[in-house]
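New here. Invent one.

***
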Amino acid sequence: MAETRVHSFLDFEKPIAELEGKIEELRHLSDEGEISIVDEVERLQSRVNKQLAQTYAKLTAWQKVQVARHPDRPHCSDYINELVTDFTPLAGDRTYAEDRAVIGGMGRLKGRSVIVIGQEKGHDTQSRVKHNFGMARPEGYRKAQRLMDLADRFGLPVITLVDTAGAYPGIGAEERGQAEAIARSIESCLNLKVPMVSLVIGEGGSGGAIAIAVADRILMLEHSVYSVISPEGCASILWRDGDHATEAANALKLTAQDLMALEVIDEIVAEPVGAAHRHRSVTIRAAGEAISKNLAELIGVDGAVLRKQRREKFLKMGEAPGL
């Protein structure tokens, strides 16, 4: 069963929503008469579990995009709060301003000191506005660079949590050098001589995502997505019509399964049946285990070797089978 009752249902979850609605109604009835309310609830819950398993086993690319964007899906701050102890946030890019779309700082993962950098979308209207819906401005990427430089200086592994529709495309961001900031952030990733592990926890969109994801190991949650452009953006360019987003999602090969086959990512972190938004803590713990395992495999590798292998890894991606 889900950890908490989910109130936001996606379009393809309507049959599940109806069943869960009936369960809620039954739970408010007294257990009288010939039919046991408890037995009926258990029967309906069994149907819900079966329906969830069948539905999530055959999600289309567009449905995975919807799941990755689910408002109840755990965000960067949730992972940090549950996985990282003694977290000390570090703010500002020392050039222009603080960008709250990017959260970064020092802490401990399973007792190991690390630098954590992630994109935060926010959970409600107020926090989404505060974090600019996870779309970073140049100062956000310059803050990421500063933190990566700090990690290199003190020999601390870097963990990044990717969840953005893309870098903020506003005029002010462009005036302050958005493209240059993203390029420099990618350069900082490539130059690191400490281990770096990236996890796509929701939506990995375009340069805004890869700016903090050029890592030794790239992991993706099972129902997250990672692509050069959003399906809507792709559809508006190729078809001149955003209504073709479903077709664009299929063409982009943006699912974790597609990217694993193309050797763009290194590991898929399984989500419980019904996805991360139904089982937040279980998903976060699984993500923490995957990150820790990959970090442990990289610790002790010479910095120059890490840097060389990381660069070769990304140069080789265009040669992967199927591309």
Q: What stands out?
A: The chain has a mean pLDDT of 88. The longest strand covers residues 196-205.
